[in-house]
Amino acid sequence: MPHEQPDGHLSLSPAPAAAAALFGARLPAMVRYAEILAGPGVERGLIGPREVERLWERHLLNCGALAELMAPEINVVDVGSGGGLPGLVLAIARPDLKVTLLEPLLRRTVFLEECVEKLELANVEVRRGRAEEWAGRVAADVVTARAVAPLEKLVGWCLPLLAPKGRMLALKGEAAATELERVAPSLKALGAVDWGVVEVGAELGDAATRVVRIDLGAQGYRPAKAARNPRNDRSARARRTAR
To answer: Is 11 contained in some domain?
Structure first.
């Protein structure tokens, strides 16, 4: 069990047995990343000090379980990476993935680059910017997001980053079904052909989580059509009549 240090922070627990089963030979690298999060990550505000107590169960394991929804050797873009959850976890657990960490805040991108260097990850690229700025500049097989924004916003940010037949995966926990229900009526018009809620990490007990999955079709993402303004339509008709 974790214990409180003199500075009031909680110390990192040893990796649980579930972590060894999930990460296998990649466990030492994951332990090193956990230590970085529990130390510099807390000091620099990437995670809260009280999150150290539940770092494995609440953060690392359920992010790692997301890998079960990914095919081998694909390109992954993690939107709003923050301290690297889930992007860095996926990159550590799956060296076959090519992962781009997309984060708008400089202090966070600096932290992510330091993690990549310390962990000697050759399959990670850190990019500074907002998802909207990268639409059309990347074509990922999978786009991930965790604790970034409501699903209504994520759909508009993430789907434009996907290649045709790409997949969006948003870790949403208990809110997954409710959030998906709200956006489902708009998905087909955006190019999605299938969507649902998937539970990952069922064997992990409390670390299991629910993920919103949205799959694009072969035609890829289709931008939403701007709503027509009846007032503008009347003005246009008036101009044509005047001519």
So the answer is: no
* Domain extent for 220: 17-242
* Residue 197, pLDDT score: 97
Asked if residue 146 belongs to a domain, the reply is yes
Q: Exposure pattern of 106-127 as b/e (b: 16+ CB <10 Å)?
A: eebbebbeebbeebebeebebb
Structure tokens at 219: 């035609």
Structure tokens at 79: 């939107």
Any domain includes 231: yes
Report residues of the chain scoring pLDDT below 70: 1-10, 226-243
243: number of CA atoms within 13 Å, CB side? 5
Angstrom distance (rounded) from CA 35 to CA 29:
10
In angstroms, the CA 115 to CA 78 distance is 15
Q: DSSP string covering 57-92, please?
A: IIIIHHHHHGGGG--SS-EEEEET-TTTTTHHHHHH
Helix (H, G, I), strand (E, B) or coil at 193: strand
Q: What is the pTM of this model?
A: 0.88
* Number of structural domains in the chain: 1
Residue reference for tokens 């989580």: 209
Answer whether residue 10 is part of any domain: no
Q: Which residues contact residue 66 at a Cβ distance below 8 angstroms, ignoring those fewer than 6 apart?
A: 86, 89, 90, 144, 169, 171, 200, 211
24: CATH: 3.40.50.150
Give tens-digit pLDDT for 9-35: 467 889 999 999 999 999 999 999 999
Q: Which residues pair with 10 in a beta bridge?
A: 4
